[in-house]
Amino acid sequence: MKASARIVVGLVLGSLLFSLTACAGKKEPTSDHKAKTTACLIRSEIQVPGTPEKQLAADLVEAQVVYGLAVREVEITRGAGSISTKLLSALQSGCVLMVSANTDYLNDLATFARLHAKMMVLFVGGGISEADQPANFRWVADGALSGAKLAGFAAAGKSHQQRVNLFIQPSYFQAKNIEQAFSEGLAAYNLITNTEVKLVVHEVTTTLEIRTHLKKLDSADVIAIFAGKNVWQGLTSFDSAGPVVLAADIQFGDTLKIKDSRVIASIERGTSLPVLKAVSSLLARKFISEPKYRVEQTLKSNLIVLRTLDAGVFDGELLDRLDSYKQGLIASKTN
User: Fold this and answer.
1) What is the CA radius of gyration of the chain?
2) Which residues contact 269 (CB under 8 A, 6 or more apart)?
3) β-strands 163-168, 244-248 pairing
4) How many Cα neighbours within 13 Å face the side chain of 157?
5) Per-residue pLDDT for 256 more than 60?
6) Rounded distance, CA 255 to CA 97, Å?
7) Parallel, antiparallel, or unpaired: how do β-strands 38-44 and 70-76 relate?
């Protein structure tokens, strides 16, 4: 690849969930509540790239700093037996707020919350009807697909070659649905602007594969990547004059210590506020929400955002079109 080649890389989603326990152990804030009061991230031993877990872990560490409660992870291993037994053990050890995004545990957590009124659950993703939702169970929709639509629209708008290459790791969270949503965003841009930006889809599983593909691309190609760290981390081997990266889920200003200068924007989940609100209610002993706490539209609630570090990443015309497209999705209640 030529050093002067300008490639816009869209949606790089890291999959590595950092250790919440390690982060929590670095600080012991003073608190006026019981020492055993704990907020726990309930997750599986299998870490799937692209789920909300990474951001929820960061949100809980933020809640620790703000409110001084303990935070930790509760890992449910395969073959562990009854999930309810594992949840009960966590509750008995102080986990009075359980936060999760693993849809395998959605029904178990709802049942558990119904049986234990003096604790709370905050669940992000999946779907639960209001009739099946206990009053101490807070539910927030996940905006991954909405984010993919915005990314597809933005990638098409940044293309100068009338082509966008979309790289997807098969094990990525909702990979096929992400591909479809991205395609819809790109098609919406074509319709609005009367252009014909084409989409080329590739499946990749390793850094070597993505680097091999990149070397074959023309200058100014636009690339979108939905993959875990084992795929996208190899991009840093290119010099600073190489690809320009439009990323996602890299948590600007939070857990990212070193940002590649080519990373200009990121699609991010904005779940911090729901987590902080849940912790505040917990410490005020307001376990029950009336009406039931339900957030269904992620775009309207800024639960998914296209975040930039520097002004001018998108020119005024593209920025206006992006906002118009977003408002259209909100109006049509397309999450």
Assistant:
1) 21
2) 52, 55, 142, 143, 147, 249, 303, 304
3) unpaired
4) 25
5) no
6) 23
7) parallel
Token digits of residue 218: 């023309």
Q: 1-49: per-residue pLDDT in tens?
A: 444 444 444 444 443 333 343 444 444 444 444 446 899 999 998 889 8
Closest CA to 246 of 263, 221, 229, 227: 263
d(CA 237, CA 235): 5
> With b meaning 16 or more CB within 10 Å and e meaning fewer, what string describes 148-174?
bbbbbbbbbbbbeeebbbbbbbebbbb
How many whole angstroms separate alpha carbon 52 and alpha carbon 37? 23
Q: In the chain, at which residue ranges do the beta strands (DSSP E only) sit?
A: 8-13, 38-44, 70-76, 95-100, 120-124, 137-140, 163-168, 198-203, 222-226, 244-248, 263-269, 294-295, 304-308
Pull the structure tokens for residue 48: 């799937």
Nearest to 72 by CA among 81, 64, 84: 64
pTM of the prediction? Answer: 0.84
Question: How far is the C-alpha of 272 from the C-alpha of 307, rounded, in Å?
Answer: 15
